[in-house]
Each structure stands twice: as C-alpha cells, then as structure tokens.
C-alpha cells in the first residue's frame, strides 16, 4: 500500500512505505469563560467587554468609545513566539474546567487546523491522489491565519508496516514537518489517525450487497497485517462505514486483544507503536501532545468499557517510557467513540490517568446537518470532561460546508469560534487542504456527481487542481484571540465588526506575559486601548502575517482591550 499525493497542478506522486522516499511524476519546483472566582474589573473594562460581545452598532463608534491611548513598543520583526512545554491543570469542581498551561504557568489556548499530507488513505479513484503534499509556504500561511497548532495526521500502517518494525524514514518525514511548523511558532499534535479501521477493508470489485447496503470503501489507519476481520462481509448499511461487518469484526479483534500473525495481540502492537512514537518525540517541546486514536470504533457498552481500559494501559505504558527517557510528559489526547461526532455526546467511562491528559471530542454539531452550532454542544463536552477528572477539552475536528462562511453564509464558522472563546475550549478545524482522491469523495463519483471538498482551498474535482483559496472562509477564521495568558483567562471576546479584542484574567504570581494575535497589515494598525495590571504592551509582526501583542503582568488581576485598524 502506498501513499499518494497531488501537486497544486494535479500531478501525481507516491510515498512508498519501506523506502520512505517520495517519487513524483514531475519535479515539485460573548460571555466570560467559567471561573471559580470572578475578577474585579475596572468600570472601563466592563464596558469594553460588553462592547466586544455586542454584534450590532457602528464599528467606528465602538472603536472610539472603547479605547484610550497607550504607549507601545516598536515592532521587532516576525520572530516566532517560543513554544514552551505544555501540560494540563484539571479542575473537576462544579462549573470548573481544566486548562492547558505552559511551563511559565500561563493558560494556553490552542487553535489551528488538521493537516493530512502524511496519511495513507485507501486509493478509491485510480489516478487521483489521496492527499496534497504540504506546500512550501503552507506553514507560514497557517501561522498567518493566526493559528498556533496543527493536528498532524499520521498512519499506523506507515509507522509499522510489519509487526514490530518501525519505518524511521517515515518518522523522519513527520519530524521534518514538525520542524517546519516550529520554525513559524506553531505546535504540532501528532494524531494517530484512523477511519473505519484501515485502508484494506474495501469491498472487492464486483461485490453485491444486501438491499440497503452498498460496497464498503477502504479508509485509513491500521496496517493490513493487523486487520483481523475473519472474512466478514464488506458492505456498509446505508453507507455508514463503521457498520460494515468487516470493520466491526476488526474492532472486535482489537478490543478482544486477538493475536496478530506473529502471535502478539494487536492491541499490544498498537501500544508498542505509541510508545515508539512517544520516545521518538519525547524531547520535543514543539509537540503539543499525542492524540492516541482518532474516532475509535467502539460500539456497545462492552467495547466502550474496553476503550477506557485501552486508554488506561496505553497512557501508563507511555508514561513509563517517558520516565525511562528522562523526559517530561507530553499531553495525551483521548477521544470518545466515533459516533460522538454524529450524536454530540457519549464519553468513555472514567479511567485512571495522570493530570496531563486532554479530552478531545469532535464538535461537529450542525456541521453535517446544515443546522446551527449550539452552546449545548460545548456544555456537553465540558460536562463530560468534568466527569473524566476535570481535564481540559480540545475539539480535534470541527467544521462544515465552506459555503456556510462569509457574508453569504449562515455564520456557522463565526459562531463556532465564539463558543470556543466562551467555553475556553481549544480546537482544530477540519481541514487545511483536501484532495478529490480522498475516500470521502469516492461515493459521489460512483453516483455520477462531481464532488466538492472542505478546507481552505477550492479544488476542481474534475482535474484535482487547486484553483485558489476560499477567501470568505479565510476571513471568518482570521480573527483576534488570546493565545497565552498569565494565570487564568476569566473572560475574552472578539468583535469582528469593530476589530476589537478584549480579555480579562487573574494570576497568583504576576510576571508571566500575555500573548494575543490580531489580524493586521503592519504593527501600526494595532491600537492598544484600556490596560490594567499589564506593563507596556508591545506589538510586533507575527510569522506569516498578523500581529502579536505581548505584555508582562504586574498585578494579580489584569485586563486588556486592543483593536486592529
């Protein structure tokens, strides 16, 4: 099985597991977040935060009335922000929520996008590559959107092409991409991606399925040697990939710890692979964490309980390996069963873990059904996280049809990010750039349709050529937000009409600096408004575009308002 990619011109190339080398057909020249204690705000900041949460009125009037003059430091160039080691602080108290923090004790919010350039997908459209490679300027463009993290998808099938043999050349490719993002101040989450178990479970050509089912597609994840489906039928009822009998049999073998071809049970093989990845990247502060498994296919109470047992065992094994290596623990992200993405609820049962874990459901509420995103979706995620030990929440995927963006859309992308701010949840959008050879596009083609893709780029699926960026979506996503803050963020809001960002917080020991990102053409576009408990805010260009505002904290309670012209 090989991983194929497309160039921007629709050219074809191939990555072959085992050699780890690329072969190409052509040379690639609001409301405050939950808090146990509300800060004492100055009257001016209360008014500013209210203005930022407002959606109506004249933008120019709001800019004038909500800001006062304040000195700034001259810009110093587009040096990337330092990527400090991340950990977690759980909070299971009533109404509380866990936080991601860095080594300076600052609350860190991670916002970004999924990047699938390194995934091995099933090839369901001969001649059409399954992914696009990461472009030369993609890291800067991602940083220039204001994001500080990518969820970097990787495949078990490429990491471990044979039982117990790890492809270090493939992991070299992963590390090279992590380096490229680190160079522009963007963290990477290593996501062990899978969908419907793996790429080898596609129905053979000529398969006839019962009425109401259709031949199953292949997807991504597990290597063929670890796919123990027992010859089960490869038909997807109503096209639902997770309900293919072969897919369900493969998951039953995993949760039942069935033995693979070498006599070692495949769940232990998977945990061994996780340990190898964790050891390989143990010293990398630029790695925000490891997502242990994308959308696991646990169905029914018994398998969902087995999922928690798997998480507990995998986390303990990774921690032992990190300790042996003398490394600080990375964040470990764990997800609910795959059906959460469709139903919006259903966590795994609580299990034993340390503090440095993150609950990572995919908040797609309204995204698949063309209905609004709701506050309830975020409340559910936070409530479930509280029952799991008060761990932080990061929505590893979210998104919708890109046509819903911009002035002609229905506000889905804007509203989702407002709820992210209000809830304090981190999130990574699905997706950066999607190829028309992705398995998601196979069914529409089989039905005689020309598919469309998600992501930031328009792609003509008749040729698989990228025709440009989706500017309305890019504008909805390029917004002011607080990336790191002294102590705890207790309230933040972005008003796009006024280009106004406000944030309030509290810190036990003043000193650590705030870091915010705003859209701008140059540093002079940034106007610092009301400042309390922060010293001399500095503005400088950010890598890829936009501006970074930083300011050390001087008091236990602090606040800031800033506008981008």
In short:
With about 575 residues, the chain is an alpha/beta fold. The chain has 13 helices and 26 strands. The chain has an 8-stranded parallel β-sheet. The protein has a 5-stranded antiparallel β-sheet with strand order 6-19-22-25-24, with no helix packed on it. It has a 4-stranded antiparallel β-sheet with strand order 20-21-26-23.
Itemize the secondary structure elements and their pairings:
Layout: E1 2-6, E2 12-16, E3 21-24, H1 43-53, H2 59-66, E4 86-89, E5 99-102, E6 107-108, E7 111-115, H3 138-144, E8 149-155, H4 156-159, H5 168-182, E9 187-193, E10 213-215, E11 235-237, H6 245-255, H7 266-280, E12 287-291, H8 300-324, E13 331-334, H9 340-343, E14 357-359, H10 375-387, E15 394-395, H11 412-423, E16 426-429, H12 442-446, E17 457-460, E18 465-469, H13 471-477, E19 481-485, E20 488-495, E21 500-506, E22 513-518, E23 526-532, E24 538-541, E25 547-552, E26 557-564
Helix pairs in contact: 7-8
Assigned CATH class of the largest domain: Alpha Beta
CATH fold topology of the largest domain: TIM Barrel
Number of strand elements: 26
**What overall form do the CA principal axes indicate?**
globular
Query: What is the total number of structural domains?
Result: 2
In spatial order, strands of the major sheet run: 14-13-12-9-8-7-16-15
Derived structural class? alpha/beta
Gyration radius, to the nearest Å? 23 Å
Largest sheet: 8 strands, parallel
Oligomer: single chain
Model regions low in confidence, pLDDT < 50 over at least 5 residues: 1-48, 54-77
CATH superfamily of the largest domain: Glycosidases
* Proportion of residues in helical segments: 10-25%
SS element count, helices: 13
Strand content: 15-25%
Distance linking N and C termini: 51 Å
CATH-defined architecture of the largest domain: Alpha-Beta Barrel
Let me know the average pLDDT. 89
């Amino acid at each position: 099985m090989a991983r194929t990619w497309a160039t921007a011109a629709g050219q074809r190339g191939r990555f072959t597991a085992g050699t780890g080398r690329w072969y190409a057909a052509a040379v690639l020249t609001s409301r405050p977040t939950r808090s146990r204690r509300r800060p004492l705000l100055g009257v001016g900041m209360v008014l500013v935060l209210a203005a930022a949460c407002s959606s109506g009125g004249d933008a120019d009037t709001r800019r004038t009335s909500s800001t006062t003059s304040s000195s700034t430091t001259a810009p110093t160039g587009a040096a990337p922000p330092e990527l400090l080691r991340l950990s977690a602080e759980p909070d299971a108290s009533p109404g509380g929520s866990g936080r991601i923090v860095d080594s300076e004790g600052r609350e860190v919010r991670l916002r970004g996008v999924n990047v699938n350039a390194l995934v091995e997908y099933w090839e369901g459209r001969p001649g059409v590559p399954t992914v696009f490679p990461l472009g030369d300027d993609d890291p800067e463009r991602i940083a220039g959107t204001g994001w500080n993290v990518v969820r970097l998808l990787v495949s078990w099938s490429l990491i471990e092409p044979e039982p117990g043999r790890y492809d270090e050349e493939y992991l070299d490719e992963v590390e090279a991409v992590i380096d490229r993002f680190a160079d522009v101040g963007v963290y990477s989450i290593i996501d062990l991606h899978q969908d419907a178990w793996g790429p080898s479970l596609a129905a053979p050509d000529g398969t006839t399925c019962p009425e109401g089912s259709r031949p199953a597609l292949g997807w991504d994840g597990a290597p063929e040697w670890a796919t123990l489906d027992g010859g089960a039928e490869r038909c997807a009822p109503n096209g639902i990939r997770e309900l293919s009998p072969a897919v369900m049999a493969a998951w039953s073998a995993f949760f039942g710890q069935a033995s693979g071809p070498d006599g070692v049970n495949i769940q232990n093989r998977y945990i061994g692979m996780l340990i190898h990845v964790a050891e390989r990247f143990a010293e990398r502060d630029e790695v925000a964490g490891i997502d242990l498994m994308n959308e696991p296919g646990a169905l029914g109470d018994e398998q969902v309980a087995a999922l928690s047992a798997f998480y507990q065992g995998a986390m303990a094994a990774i921690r032992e390996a990190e300790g042996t290596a003398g490394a600080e623990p990375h964040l470990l992200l764990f997800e609910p069963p795959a059906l959460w993405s469709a139903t919006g609820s259903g966590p795994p049962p609580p299990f034993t873990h340390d503090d440095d874990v993150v609950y990572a459901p995919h908040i797609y509420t309204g995204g698949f059904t063309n209905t609004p995103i709701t506050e309830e979706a975020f409340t559910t995620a936070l409530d479930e996280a509280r029952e799991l030990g008060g761990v932080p929440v990061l929505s590893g995927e979210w998104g919708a049809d890109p046509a819903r963006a911009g002035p002609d859309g229905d506000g889905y992308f804007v509203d989702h990010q407002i709820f992210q701010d209000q809830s304090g949840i981190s999130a990574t959008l699905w997706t950066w750039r999607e190829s028309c050879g992705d398995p998601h596009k196979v069914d529409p083609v089989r039905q005689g349709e020309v598919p469309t893709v998600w992501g930031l780029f328009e792609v003509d699926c008749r040729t698989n050529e990228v025709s440009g960026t989706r500017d309305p979506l890019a504008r909805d996503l390029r917004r002011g937000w607080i990336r790191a803050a002294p102590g705890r963020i207790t309230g933040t809001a972005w008003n796009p009409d006024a280009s106004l960002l406000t944030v309030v917080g509290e810190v036990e020991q003043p000193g650590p600096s705030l870091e915010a990102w705003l859209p701008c053409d140059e540093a002079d576009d940034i106007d610092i408004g009301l400042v309390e408990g922060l010293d001399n805010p500095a503005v400088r260009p950010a890598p890829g575009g936009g501006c970074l505002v930083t300011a050390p904290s001087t008091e236990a309670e602090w606040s800031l308002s800033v506008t981008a012209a």
